[in-house]
Write a structure and sequence with these properties.
alpha/beta, Rossmann fold, Helicase, Ruva Protein, domain 3, 2 domains, two-stranded antiparallel sheet, 10 helices, 35% helix, elongated
């Protein structure tokens, strides 16, 4: 499949990474070993796929575009590349081998819901390496009280240890996006706090939908609750650490 022969489809948010130097840098960051169970999300024209297959015995890929999926199947035998023609937002990642490593140039138009979907499978994964919009990566790794810190930061930092690895210019893609990009590494945390996940998600969403308000006005807690939690109700949602939101969710659930 010659690189650059597929016309990018806007509805799939397709921006194909073609810079060989960047692609090689991604592979080095992943550090794949021969027997690693790697799952690539959105292989596109297969630029990263080919480099990964030089390092691993077998690769699985999830591609929503039927034409690209068919071309990848034609290029690689199934014992080397298993292609799932599917929407990653609806894909059941529990079917992946335990300890799988996820990689991919994620579609920027669905990056946040896709990250939330993948977080539900964190305990099965060894790590994840994704190319994302720089602004999204900065939100993922932001610390409390920083401008980029918000709902995405809290929801992901309770499941992963994350690192922004390096920035990627728009010119490395075809067509070039209107934003800069970055590669981020997500490593699942060893222990997940015991809590009602639905309550936790609602608490975080409620807090950051009213981020300019104080916690007293943003969250359904009484003065006694704030006192028991040792949290100042005069703070704003962005001032709390992810662990504080876990404690709030646990108290509300009780």
């Amino acid at each position: 499949m010659p690189s650059g022969s597929h016309r990018p489809r806007k509805r799939f948010g397709q921006h194909f990474l073609h810079d060989r130097r960047i692609l090689e840098r991604i592979v080095e960051a992943i550090g794949p070993q021969r027997t690693d169970a790697i799952v690539e999300i959105g292989p596109g024209e297969g630029a990263l796929t080919r480099l990964l297959l030089e390092r691993v015995e077998r690769l699985e890929a999830i591609e929503i575009d039927r034409d690209l999926a068919a071309r990848l199947r034609a290029e690689f035998p199934p014992e080397r590349l298993a292609v799932h023609c599917a929407d990653a937002l609806r894909f059941d990642f529990s079917a992946c081998p335990a300890g799988a490593r996820l990689v991919g140039n994620l579609p920027y138009n669905i990056s946040t819901p896709l990250l939330f979907h993948l977080a539900g499978y964190a305990e099965r994964m060894r790590d994840m390496h994704f190319m994302l919009q720089l602004e999204v990566v900065e939100r993922m790794v932001a610390e409390p009280s920083k401008p980029a810190y918000g709902r995405l930061s809290v929801m992901l930092q309770t499941r992963f240890r994350m690192h922004k690895l390096f920035r990627v210019p728009a010119g490395a893609f075809r067509p070039p996006p209107k934003v800069e990009s970055a590669l981020v590494r997500l490593v699942p945390l060893a222990g997940r706090p015991k809590m009602d996940e639905t309550v936790f998600a609602k608490v975080v969403a409620a807090a950051f939908s009213a981020r300019r308000k104080t916690l007293r006005n943003a969250l359904p807690l009484a003065s006694a609750d704030f006192e028991a939690l040792a949290i100042d109700p005069g703070l704003r949602p962005e001032n709390l650490a992810p662990a504080d939101y876990v404690r709030i969710a646990q108290r509300i659930a009780r």
